[in-house]
Amino acid sequence: MKFNLKQWTFKQKVYLSLKSNETKNKLKYAKASIIAILIGFIVGFIVVYLAGGDGVQYMQALFTSAFSNFTAGGVSASQLSVTLNYFVVFALMGLGLALGFKVGLFNMGGSGQAVFGFGMAYLALLSITKEKNISMSEIGSGYIFILFIIFILSGVTISLIAGILKVFLNIHEVVTTIMLNWIVWYMVKFFINQTNTNFIEQSFLAVGGYNWLGGLIAVVLSFASVWFVLTFTTYGYKFRIIGKQPSAGKYAGINSRLYIVITTAFQGLFISMGGFFYYFTIARQLNYYADVIPTIGFDAICVALVAFNNVLGILPVAWVWAILNSGAISAASWGLVAKETSYLIFGVIIYSATIYSLLFRFVPFKWAKFWNYFVRDTKLKLYVKSINSQIKDLKKSKRNIKNEQAIILAKEELIKFKQENKNNKDSNFSLKYKNLKLNFEDLNDQYRGKYHKQIIELKEMRTEAIDKGFENYYNRNLSGVKQTYNNAKVLNIIGILNTAITDLNEVDKLLFDYNSNFKEQIKQDKSAKSELTNKKKDYKNNLIQKINSNYQEKIKEINNINKNYTAQYKQNKILLKEELKQIKLDLNNKIKLEKDKVKKNELLIEKYNKILEVNDKYVFSGK
Questions:
Q1: Which residues form a coiled coil (predicted)?
Q2: 3-state secondary structure of 72
Q3: How far apart are CA 43 and CA 58, in angstroms?
Q4: How many Å apart are CA 326 and CA 311, to the nearest integer?
Q5: If you count DSSP H runs as helices and E runs as strands, how many of each does the chain have, helices first?
Q6: DSSP symbol at 350
Q7: Which one in 305, 377, 516, 524 has a CA-CA gap of 20 to 30 Å to 281?
Q8: What does the pLDDT read at residue 399?
Q9: Can you list the alpha helix ranges (DSSP code H) found in 477-528?
Q10: How confident is residue 75, by pLDDT bands cut at 50, 70 and 90?
Q11: HSE of 85 in the Cβ direction (CA atoms, 13 Å)?
């Protein structure tokens, strides 16, 4: 297989990117979302059992029915189609809402924008039926593009109203969007003037017989476009600055008002797209039996929040929401539990996501590593015990500040002064008594503050000692030794990668210059085009072949060095374990036989230090 330097550099960039701190930080959010979802399912499982149902059967029904055929009321349909349509709706609406959340716009108007879009599209359908003198079911799918445009423009208009009011009148978008929800609800209700709209035919959006395919294509195009714009364009960079550091964006000359208005427009676009697929594939009608706004827009807010507004993170969360919505219908029809159980699961997931800072700290492996270290470091344990004892004494002193000599004297002076001047109504007496009382209260505050400060300092010393000890241990134990070899291998890759990128850029520059000359030569002599094209091809091939051959040997050499590092680590690992085993064997017998507590602690400290010394012998030395 031929070596290709560009492919190699791409693979290494991907590898280093996955190892980067930025990726690890993003994975923390993913972990928090996964834990939140798991907590929701566990609570739902427990609730089903408490309600007298079978939790296992319910969960099984929830997932399997979301991908199966579903029969209810004598009507059979593919539940997978329903699940995919829900996924499309939640993904698009969640995307629109997440864009707003990223810049601090908490749009609550998803339902209103969807209702208004459907209302305008439905009025257009009624107009077509009157003009053509046909029924709603006879309208062809050729009108779907016009209906789509009407739906989108209507939703974008409502979203833009909220953005403009925020930018120019400083009216908070939460108030605006909630008010607009009700305004458009009654507007649509007034203009349609029916208890419910006619049923929309599913065939309107069918592509090749699948009514979910068009929506899925829209999801792919929308997410790919947004991800590309936010990641690789100037607009995306400015957008991120406004979201993370609005003050910095303002001083950098970014027109934040313009970006907020543009963001609300895009929110309206994606929310309306989601609403369009919701009303034309799932709900297929709007009823007014009760003045209750559809909750689909509010459900989508949860998708964005649980995904922590991550564009790509919205997709798996939307999929979970789709399964819960679609599967709940089937599970309820089987008589397992009420359909509302799935909404309980939603609620628990959302609540769990809101306490994401706690979920970030849920690091069981790190906790296990820490306690594994702490039980070994006797010196630290004794130090922590001493600190805890001091803190306990200070807390006791803080509670009993009334026993402090200065406070006792101040209190006695206050009581004595009050008794001696019991019947004295002179204003000077009142002033002096007030000063004595203030002095007494100040003394109390001073002692409380002094003890509080000492407690805080001791706690900080304790935390610093534990953190340093933990870091020192894991930098010098077996995993730390392994990390030194891994770091050496990464540094080797980075060293050659940097020079490779520089040389590839130089090759691109040479090819660009040659291409410019090639075009000029073609203009001057068109008859020589074939000959010049071949020369150009040969020149390009020679350059690429040369750089590939140069780096092939270098990279082969680096790979061999890294393989040697791996073999060296494996060999050292065996030797290290053998030495550690011998040290533990020698000292463990002494520790068991030693009855004096002080001497026993000294032996434990000696054992710990020797273990670290042995580990240090096998740390990567660069040879």
A1: 515-597
A2: strand
A3: 13
A4: 23
A5: 22, 2
A6: H
A7: 305
A8: 87
A9: 478-524
A10: very low
A11: 24
Q: Which fold has domain 54-336?
A: ABC transporter involved in vitamin B12 uptake, BtuC (1.10.3470)
Ordered alpha helix ranges (H), 200-295: 213-232, 234-244, 246-251, 256-281
Q: What proportion of the chain, given as a percentage, has pLDDT over 70?
A: 90
Looking at residue 65, its amino acid is S
How far is the C-alpha of 497 from the C-alpha of 500, rounded, in Å?
Answer: 5
What backbone phi and psi angles, to 5 degrees, belong to 72? -150, 130
Tens-place pLDDT, residues 140-162: 777 888 999 999 999 999 999 99
Q: DSSP readout, 544-603?
A: HHHHHHHHHHHHHHHHHHHHHHHHHHHHHHHHHHHHHHHHHHHHHHHHHH---HHHHHHH
**Both tokens assigned to 330:** 């089937």
CB 612 within 8 A of CB 580: no
Q: Which residue has the tokens 């919701």?
A: 278
Distance (Å, whole) CA 135 – CA 128: 9
Residue type present at position 445: D
Give the amino acid at 10.
Answer: F
10 Å CB burial of residue 236 (0-12, 13-18, 19+) is: middle
Helical H segments across 170-196, by residue range: 173-192
Rounded CA separation 14/19 (Å): 9
Which band of pLDDT confidence, cut at 50, 70 and 90, is reported for residue 319?
very high
For the chain, the structural domain boundaries read 54-336, 378-476, 478-617
Task: Summarize pLDDT for 404-440 with one digit per residue, the tens.
Answer: 888 888 888 878 877 777 666 666 777 777 888 888 8
- Report the pLDDT value the prediction gives residue 387, as an integer from 0 to 100: 92
206 vs 479: which has the higher pLDDT: 479
The two structure tokens encoding residue 603: 């032996």
